[in-house]
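Entry for S-adenosylmethionine complex. Fields follow.
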Amino acid sequence: MTEPTEQGRLTSRSIRSFVIRNGRLTKAQAAAIETLLPKFGIRFDSNQPLDLANLFGNNNPVWLEIGFGNGDALIDMAVRYPDVNFIGVEVHEPGVGHALIGIEANELSNVRVVQHDAIEVLEIMLSQQSLARVLLFFPDPWRKKRHFKRRIVQPEFLTLVASRLSDNGVLHCATDWADYAQWMLEHLEACPQLSNTAKEGKFVARPESRTKTRFEQRGERLGHDVFDLVYTRL
Ligand SMILES: C[S@@+](CC[C@H](N)C(=O)[O-])C[C@H]1O[C@@H](n2cnc3c(N)ncnc32)[C@H](O)[C@@H]1O
């Protein structure tokens, strides 16, 4: 397995947690990609970390949402927490288009999106201790055993995330797939830089900060339980 360097950089790509789906863009999404991405997007081409204070024009804490899907939860949180800056990362283009429409409709100045692999965004664009919170809601569960290596929650991913969190920064994960919840718990418990906030060393009730996501609603319709895990950086 690839080991992170001291700076928390993975020395080569080792986790491929997504497949690019050929979802068709609606006209509105295509227009948003064309006109709003230059305004609210951050282009992945940088070899040096972002200057977040300069990007947002203030020193507010920054929360990063990994794999925001259609972005509804990201937009809702940005509306509810105007004193927090949000960066959403998603590879699925229709989702990015949908989120951009939401940013414009709500006149939000505290959200930016990156259409790229979140692992590379963490590695290359975000400096150490730059994030107050990392949100990972309903990541693809990769149910088959031979695909477990594609699960984004892996030891090197957690080391990378922890290195980007500020002191007492928070990693919040949620899933409706019981097997993945157990996997997350085991890997998070084994990460020396992170500490569980749950009293019994397991899961927490859904924090008020987490908006119900589209995938959560789908899981509920299927009768799935939902598991939240909240860890702080030591
Ligand atoms: C199961 S969906 C959940 C979406 C959303 N969080 C929700 O709860 O509705 C997982 C999403 O993560 C995205 N994703 C997976 N790996 C990613 C990565 N490394 N970087 C960015 N996005 C990723 C996928 O494209 C997909 O949209």
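NOTE: The longest helix spans residues 93-105.
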